[in-house]
Amino acid sequence: MNKEIPKITEAELEIMKVLWSKSPQTANEIIESLEPKMDWKPKTIRTLINRLAQKEAVSYHQEDGRMYEYYPLVSQERFLQVETKSLLRHFYGTSLKPLLVNFLKEEKLSPEDINELKQILDEKSEENQRKDRRK
Amino acid sequence: MNKEIPKITEAELEIMKVLWSKSPQTANEIIESLEPKMDWKPKTIRTLINRLAQKEAVSYHQEDGRMYEYYPLVSQERFLQVETKSLLRHFYGTSLKPLLVNFLKEEKLSPEDINELKQILDEKSEENQRKDRRK
DNA sequence: AAATTAAGATTACATTTGTAATATTATCTT
DNA sequence: AAGATAATATTACAAATGTAATCTTAATTT
User: Each residue of A67-119: pLDDT tens digit?
Assistant: First the structure.
């Protein structure tokens, strides 16, 4: 597991997002979701869907006759994970704290989330102390 | 302040990274830094530098005669901030907790950093409670 | 000063991405 | 069944990006 995922472009990402929000969906449903916000022609959206299918970021099965229903092959979690990893790799050695601060401030977090994050921070504290003691 | 920053492509980002690590640098110095890791011809690297100059992500001044010394016009902090904002905007409404968890795990943080982050989390906790009480 | 070298400037060309239009084909109407 | 409709498939084309090569010109070497 943990395979490579195909490169997904900006425009294609919009398709993925609607499929992540609900799946499966027909091409027409996707088009309906996107036409207002993106100002794309239906044909454009179909092209993007097809490209995603070619690169196996989505797949489909025939539903009730002629139409396809599409669903993502790449999960949002996986996608985000890969994107973040890539960012981290790029900026390896750079202080990311300012960025973390930004994140934490902007993000709405549930109490459970907050506790989990604090716990992770505690774990890091302990790690540090263990290392300190060894020195 | 807080102006738009120009779009910087993957390849161009490599140039920015070497200029962020040390600046100013001549084209040749940049080339030396990059040739081993990226397998690019010097001319390729010069093209990328020029494109960055055109889009005003870097600038230069003439040093000792014919050669230019290049320096970034976009700071690394600003770049990261914009990139992350864009990621956040994309995934507005999505739980970014897994992503944060990833970040926290990978990042080496000093004890002071950790405390600062915990404090931010505490503040968020309080916010939540205040909101709860109001309901 | 003429020839050589080496910066920087300009131009080139393939691939990827954005943005569709046209062609084909399966289904629905009449 | 013939025509109309509406999906999917195929093709198109401009802009952005990756990856250089050639051209021009200023500096260095003979």
Answer: 999 999 999 989 988 888 888 777 776 777 777 887 777 777 788 888 888 88
Nearest DNA or RNA nucleotide to A42 (CA to C1'): C20
List % helix, strand, coil for chain B (3-state, nearest 5): 65, 10, 30
Q: What pLDDT score does B66 carry? A: 82
If DSSP codes are grouped into helix, strand and coil, which group holds residue B41? coil
The torsion region of residue A2 among left (phi > 0), alpha (psi -120 to 50) and beta comes to left
With 90 as the cut, is the pLDDT of residue B51 above it?
yes
Q: Which of A85, A94, A125 is opposite residue B76, by nearest beta carbon? A: A94
Chain B residues contacting A via beta carbons under 8 Å:
13, 17, 76-77, 80-81, 83-84, 87-88, 90-91, 94-107, 109-111, 113-114, 116-118, 120-121, 124-125, 128
Structure tokens at B20: 């962020």
Separation between Cα atoms, residue A57 and residue A71, nearest integer Å: 9
pLDDT of res. A114: 87
For residues B48 and B97, which has the higher predicted lDDT (pLDDT)?
Answer: B48
Q: Which residues contact B5 (CB under 8 A, 6 or more apart)?
A: B57, B74, B78, B79, B82
Q: Using a 7 Å cut-off to protein CB atoms, list the covered nucleotides of chain C.
A: 7-12, 16-22, 26-28
